[in-house]
Design brief:
The protein has 363 residues and is of the alpha/beta class. The protein folds into two domains: 246 residues, QueA-like (3-Layer(aba) Sandwich), CATH 3.40.1780.10; 95 residues, QueA-like (Thrombin, subunit H), CATH 2.40.10. The protein is built from nine helices and 17 strands. The strands form three sheets. A nine-stranded mixed sheet has the order 2-1-17-16-14-3-12-13-15. Strand 1 and strand 2 form a beta hairpin. Helix 8 packs across helix 9.
Amino acid sequence: MNLDELNFDLPPELIAQRPPAKRDDSRMMLLDRISGKWEDRQFREFPELLRGDELVVFNNARVIPARLFGKRIGIRATEPGAHNPAKQEHLQADIEVLLVRQLEQNLWETLVRPGRKVPVGERIIFGDGELEGVVQGREEFGLRVIRFVSKSGFHEALVRLGHIPLPPYIKREDEPADRERYQTVYAKQGSAVAAPTAGLHFTPELLTRLRERKIETAEITLDVGLGTFEPVRAEKLEDHKIHAESYEVSKHAAEAIGRAQAANRPILAIGTTAVRALEDAAEKAQGSDFVIREGRAEAEIFLYPGKPIRVVNQLLTNFHLPESSLLALVAALTGRENLLRAYRHAVESRYRFYSYGDCMLIR
């Protein structure tokens, strides 16, 4: 399938720059994935629009302040021309570091800008030297591997020095309010560098209404990273190589999913990241029953029209970028034509797009 088959026209003014006043103030399009018919609803209606026997699966990953601004440390001679000149460190140009994926304690894959000026061995300091990083290696996708050192502890320093990594289509700097609003109310663990944005619409009160309806829920953790937001650079979707993201399926979640599958109950994923974790776990399952097992793994699956969806029947998702891997994933569930027709209606009806925008319930 050609990438340009997932293109659509989007007026830039529809890209949400800030969240709504209240989380559940967002609009929600209800899309029938078989017929392609839609209805315009409000997200606060979500609990009552469910049948009642669904298993709702959330990604409880917590977003960390993954964007850091530092300075490179260079070396200069104090005695030019000397055979063994004395050296002294000096600060060079500003550098931006985006944490992408944790490899081990204090060792991270990162995106560095400007990357071409940051060789292996380069030292970068953040703040007043509270945090320091050393470039250990270079990888695919322009990534640098950096080991961090901090006297106060890496995560403690990150909380003080880091910024919320708002997506580049939000044309403003992050603000203190983003630390709360670019985080789901049920975030618990992990080191995500982007929010599982379909979950941003939920409030504690709305989760209580789900419990009052006795709708079963489960939580998995996928640390949202480069695989979710990296652009598709191949002309054909089949040629796109997606970056791995770490995820964990708890025993409780695996058992709940198994029961729902055995009873032929709908499995409703909250967000594309939950879909990616569940479908990757199913693909890795041994045998032909696609039974999801507990444990940690790396999500390497790339879903697009023509790839089978084995676990998820329903999806709550925001509206995505044209020609993106997330749009391809949703189209795998709905079909390309149904999805693009719904998107054209969303544009005509002035829905708000992307991370802080409105949402779509597909069933």
